Amino acid sequence: MKLFVFIMGLLFGSFFNVIILRVPRKESIIWPRSHCPHCQTTLKWYELIPVLSFIFLKGKCRYCGYRISWQYPLVEVMTGLIYLLLYYHFGLTMVFLIYIILISLLIISSVIDIREKIIPNVITFPGMVTGLISSIILKHIGFWNSLLGILIPGIFLFIIALIFKGGLGMGDVKLVAMIGAFTGVRWALMALFTGAFLGAITGIILIVSGVLDRKKPVPFGPFISIGGLVSILWGYEIWIYIINLY
């Protein structure tokens, strides 16, 4: 089962790459079939095998020699590993499947944010609705906790975005609200503060090392997403540790 979960993650990760490229361009994620972005040649099924096709093709299109981005295998492997982590933590349960949906949306949103500096509404709004519906059906967090998970962290970050203009976007607000729809208030706030901490540390390191211009904003979405993953997997343990400090 572990191998099956990992392989499913690789396959879904391959499809996520299609979504990541096409959604910002407002293109269909179903048609046309996958093709080389340079020469537009439609790819055969064996050229779409996650990770292996990248290795066998030596990172280049076999038709025109155009270099294939490392994004493809990285997203595929990352998705497989995170799916496996969720499986280890929750087992084959409905909660596992619900968090698979959330993590998938976070992976897609994060990579789009890195590439395009946007987090599309077409990802976050359906995600919020899905989180609310799952809270009613599964009752793993309760409807009101899900609803407040949207409102409280979302409004909090919205106020922060208004105060510190330019540092945050409305996409970040909707992203943390989407996390709250799936996890509830407590873990969404933990995701937000964890993401803020990781983002600040990373920003300082990049600026001090000269890799990043001080005036150039760092996409916050990926850090919120990492915070979401941390809160899902280890939120309870972190919460208990914080309480015991006092």
What features would you describe in this structure?
The chain is mainly α and 246 residues long. It has 2 domains: 1-92, no CATH class; 130-246, no CATH class. Helices cover 70% and strands 0% of the residues. Helix 7 crosses helix 8 (185-208). The longest helix is centred in the C-terminal third of the chain and has 25 residues, at 221-245.
Largest sheet: none
Q: How much helix, percentage-wise, in residues?
A: 55-70%
Head-to-tail CA distance between termini: 41 Å
Q: What fraction of residues sit in β-strands?
A: under 5%
Reading the helices and strands in chain order gives HHHHHHHHH
Q: How many DSSP helices?
A: 9
Low-confidence blocks of residues? none
Number of domains: 2
Class of secondary structure makeup: mainly alpha
* Tally of strands: 0
The Cα radius of gyration reads 19 Å
EC number: 3.4.23.43
Membrane topology: Multi-pass membrane protein
Subcellular location: Cell membrane
Keywords: Cell membrane, Hydrolase, Membrane, Transmembrane, Transmembrane helix
Write a brief caption for the model:
This protein is an all-alpha fold and 246 residues long.
Per-chain topology:
Layout: H1 2-22, H2 52-56, H3 71-90, H4 94-116, H5 121-138, H6 143-163, H7 170-183, H8 185-208, H9 221-245
Helix pairs in contact: 1-3, 1-4, 3-4, 4-5, 4-7, 4-9, 5-6, 5-7, 6-7, 6-8, 7-8, 7-9, 8-9
